[in-house]
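Hey,
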Amino acid sequence: MRLQQTLANPVSCTGIGLHSGEPVTLTLRAAPVNTGVVFINRLSTDGASLAASVEHLVATDLCTAISGNGFQVKTIEHILAALAGLGIDNVYVDVNASEAPVMDGSSAPFVRLIQSAGILAQNRRQPYLKITRPLEVIDGNRHVRIEPSATTKMTYSIHYNHPLIQTQTYTYEHSAQAFEREISEARTFGFLQEVEALWARGLGHGGSLDNTIVLSHDGILNESGLRFPNEFVRHKILDLIGDFSLLGVPFIGHIIAERSGHAMHTRLVQQILSHPDSWVLLNANETVAAPEPHSAMTAPRSASMVALQAS
């Protein structure tokens, strides 16, 4: 168990939206305890805010999006994964567009951004949601399940009829260090015919070989190659971490996903919140002495939990 964490300093990055192709600046700022992750619309005169919560989830194509209070922000799963993966519980995310920047298609640029800002421990213990009874979402041969576990881990399996993918399965045991090393660098991917279909529908305008692995019929178009032989399933875990941050608190449990995706991930989040008899909340509302300022910048990151947004 650990203290809640925020950022020591504000930090910004610029990029383009994956689907809109529009330029966007994203700024991360410190937030008080129990704030969670809150997006701020810098296009509005009043700076409307929107909590990254499953109650604000909206249906979109091929990404995770939230909407409310007069604005919508899409493709937030990669920044949410970085925040959750490094255990940043409370933060304001300023955006001046309706989509988060895609950067290189992974969470790694956001990880480096957070690390450059510094991580600050706060004077409140972080609650955890501990799963005590299995829950599952099934859709034909696709499913995602969460069951009791002593630690936070995820097992993901994907199946594609492509020589570079076929069947890939990966089990991830969470720690901030493991997230940075094993998951954060994995990029989003798509098949060439799907990318062309997205363009025809007015989506994916910001997609390029700089931020997407594009698969041809027997290989990839990216000259730089893959970062991991199983980069595809690792990216699915990255998406799962980001989507599950909409739960609101870090969880203790084992997620097992088979051919799943954004919609099924968030359906499981909703199912968890609607079945309070399937979990217990630990460390709720525990206040502790504020950490010493000199130690705050080097406060230990979460070693065994995925940080998620407040329920």
